[in-house]
Amino acid sequence: MARAREPIGEGPACDADHPRPSGRPRDAALDEAIILATRDRLVRDGYSKMTIGDIVSDAKVTRPTLYRRWRNKFELVVDALDYGFRKQSDMYTVDLSQLEPLDALVEAVRRVDPAYYNPDAMVLMGNFAGEAFRTPDLLEILRKHAVEPRVTLIEKVLSELQERRAVSADIDTHTIATMCFGSYFAAFYRGEQQKDLPEHVVAVLWPGIVAKPEITRRRSGDRAGPGE
Fold first, then answer.
1. Domain named HTH tetR-type: which ranges (predicted)?
2. Structure letter (DSSP) for residue 216
3. Do domains 28-84 and 94-209 have the same CATH topology?
4. Which fold is adopted by the domain 94-209?
5. Is 167 helix (H, G, I), strand (E, B) or coil?
6. By CB neighbour count within 10 A (0-12 exposed, 13-18 middle, 19+ buried), where does 98 fall?
7. CATH class as words, domain 28-84
8. Residue range 42-89, pLDDT digits in tens
9. Residue 226's pLDDT is what?
């Protein structure tokens, strides 16, 4: 994932005059321990309140161990987010063409659930929304790698259903996709059960988007007359 503009962050080196130190080969197990500790702190404390000290304590590593890998908190958080994005990337490329049209849309809506892979995703997204003014790059990363792939999945499935002539050709796929994604946030903030949300959302949408059978109406003048 391309790194966003780097803001000044917590750490001993936050500019181009202090390149990331080189040294012994990196231990993948330590990398993952630090990343997982970072993701946990993002949920519990949010970006602004989490500290490098808390992360190294949770991961049971030293500060030098962390700073050999990341120069500051922002770079660490970018990689912690990328870890999650890579884990869930396959869910956006699923082939739903073999399912019945309504079932395909239900499954697509199920997969846009922010908590489909990570049960803490709603809290994380809320935390990053709160950083919109302090650290806008974080929200932009989230928008690009967590929001757009989800709504694009819905748009893609709807376009495929249009090609199959299962839904109307003139529906607004962008708005429908946005509504499907937003329904999870509405349910979360209302404290409602989200287990059957995909079925409920599609049940409401489907009558308005399903392709209507063409009815051939003959004009009275086109009807065959007697003796023809």
1. 28-88
2. -
3. no
4. Tetracycline Repressor; domain 2 (1.10.357)
5. strand
6. exposed
7. mainly alpha
8. 999 999 999 999 999 999 999 999 999 999 999 999 999 999 888 887
9. 52
